[in-house]
Amino acid sequence: MRFGRLDLNLLVALDALLTERSVSLAADRLCLSQSATSSALGRLRDYFGDDLLVVKGRHMILTARAEELIEPVRAVLEQIRSTIAIAPPFDPATADRQIRIMASDYTTQVLLAEALAQLAIDAPNLRFEIQPMSTNPVEAIERGFVDFLITIDFAVSADHPSQVLFEDDYVVVGAADNPAMQGEMTRERYFSLGHVAARFGRAQMPAFEEWFTRRQKQQRRIEVVAPTFLSLPGLVLGTSRIVTMHRRLAQQVVDTFPLVMRELPFQIPPIREVVQWHLTNSNDRALRWVVERLEAVAQHRVPRHDNVIPLDPADELRRDEIAARWQNDTGSR
Questions:
Q1: N or C: fewer beta carbons within 10 Å in the chain?
Q2: Does residue 273 contact residue 101 with C-beta atoms inside 8 Å?
Q3: Alpha carbons 12 and 74: distance in angstroms, whole number
Q4: 4's torsion region: left (phi>0), alpha (psi -120 to 50) or beta?
Q5: Among candidate residues 95, 112, 121, the one with its CA nearest the CA of residue 148
Q6: Is 157 exposed, middle or buried (CB count within 10 Å of its CB: 0-12, 13-18, 19+)?
Q7: Could you tell me which residues are beta bridge partners of residue 3?
Q8: Whole-number Å distance between alpha carbons of 264 and 268
């Protein structure tokens, strides 16, 4: 929302910046990335015609204009909070509303199925609509088409808050009577076999594991392309083909079908599934409660194995590079 030339959402960012006197600390307070917070500071500087925060030595200090804005900005936000933004207490037992979630069939199967069953016990009047992933999922958040987007961390927007729900890695799945699935899966055997892969939409966007493998110049022979993750297991039954699947989904299907799974003979970075919501919904108590419940269900973690690349601080730079390339190649922003 704008008032004159000022985006009123920037007032929240301005208050955090004036209070913390640090872009990084303000970013933590706002649950935004440092780049998004720096962008907000740039827009505020443009609007006020003042630097607001300047570097002095190893710290940032407020300009005289920024000092003048501290109390007025705080007073405006407090007025909004006290007269408009204070929501009535959230009671799951009586809450009656619909919540729209955009998620893949993989996420629906390994997380939402269990989570929504549990939510129905404590919040029987909440209704949920699960929408399939679109070619531009962030736009669905931006335009208010959905309340939540659940997808890999590479695909979310830095302009809105998000919460990591769980990590998952990849395994090889094939028919139990497939001779190639007897014993350890070797690299040579893996690349000699026919593969089944999932691709999505008219653009035939590959899943992350196929995209990453392509970038490593490791060519697989894709013999069958499927439109969903859940269709993958049935397409290897009775064949010598294999499929590279998320471990959480693989563990479910090998318990249901005559399938077996093996460790990958090379490394693929693990995915991190995150839930994202619009910045303006951060104080929606019902949505925050749902996020907390989703996170609780997601904490039933699958044990890590040798093929997963550890997520240590040094690896974060590499993940940033992967995210930038993924967004460039898939057109997700």
A1: N
A2: no
A3: 9
A4: left
A5: 112
A6: buried
A7: 6
A8: 9
pTM equals 0.68
| H or E element in which residue 149 lies | strand 148-152
Residue carrying structure tokens 């804005």 = 69
Question: Which residues does residue 152 pair with via DSSP β-bridges, in sequence order?
Answer: 273
Nearest to 159 by CA among 256, 39, 332: 39
pLDDT in tens, 109-155: 999 999 999 999 999 999 999 999 887 888 899 888 999 999 999 88
State both tokens at 284: 């929606």
Q: How many CB atoms lie within 10 A of CB 302?
A: 16
- Read off the pLDDT of residues 197-213 as tens digits, 9 standing for 90 and up: 999 888 788 899 998 88
pLDDT at 4 over 70: no
- 50, 136, 280 from 151: Cα distances, Å: 38, 12, 20
The domains found in the chain, sorted by start residue, are 2-85 (1.10.10.10), 97-167+271-330 (3.40.190.10), 170-263 (3.40.190.10)
The SS3 call for residue 3 is strand
In the numeric block, which tokens belong to residue 37? Answer: 């917070």
